[in-house]
Amino acid sequence: MQVLIPADRIHARVSEMATEIAHAYEGKAVTVVGVLTGCLIFTADLIRRIDLPLRVAFVTASSYRGPTTVPGLLEIRDDLLPDVAGKHVLLLDDILDTGKTLTRVVAHLIDRGAASVKVGVLLRKIGRQEVPFEPDFVGFTIPDKFVVGYGLDFNDEYRHLPYIGVFSAGE
């Protein structure tokens, strides 16, 4: 598998993002909401480096099921989400692809009464965005390739890889 972003570059950039986030919130308490399952490793590494009072929660928002690289109908589940009314929310996701998932989840959090919602993504894929959306924090901008590793998967495999790799169907 071709390594697109090696583990050491990911860890360095996650540390930089933590500093950017801490500055943006200026000591305010933050509820970090990760979009499962892809965000798990990114969220865990990032929150350990953010010097702010934090609560951590998760939602699921999935449009990929099974062995496909084409999104389907988006489903949001917030069973693991605490009350966010009046809270500053930092939404974390593994990748900004079409923008549809993040746009819908941000709207969902605002509907739940969040005082503010900022978004951080590990990866921003160029050439796939279908709806206008600008994340507040971006780890890396990548080409339009199907990637796995560091939480991203193909058919629930490869999440454990410490790097971001370009996936080929024959692997």
UniProtKB/TrEMBL annotation:
Its EC number is 2.4.2.8. Pfam families: Pribosyltran. Keywords: Cytoplasm, Glycosyltransferase, Magnesium, Metal-binding, Nucleotide-binding, Purine salvage, Transferase. It comes from Frigoriglobus tundricola. This is Hypoxanthine phosphoribosyltransferase. Its cofactor is Mg(2+). Its main location: cytoplasm. Residues 8-154 form the Phosphoribosyltransferase domain. Pathway: Purine metabolism; IMP biosynthesis via salvage pathway; IMP from hypoxanthine: step 1/1. The lineage of its organism: Bacteria, Pseudomonadati, Planctomycetota, Planctomycetia, Gemmatales. One of its GO terms (cellular component) is cytosol. GO terms for biological process: GMP salvage; guanine salvage; hypoxanthine metabolic process; IMP salvage; purine ribonucleoside salvage. Belongs to the purine/pyrimidine phosphoribosyltransferase family. It is found in: Cytoplasm.
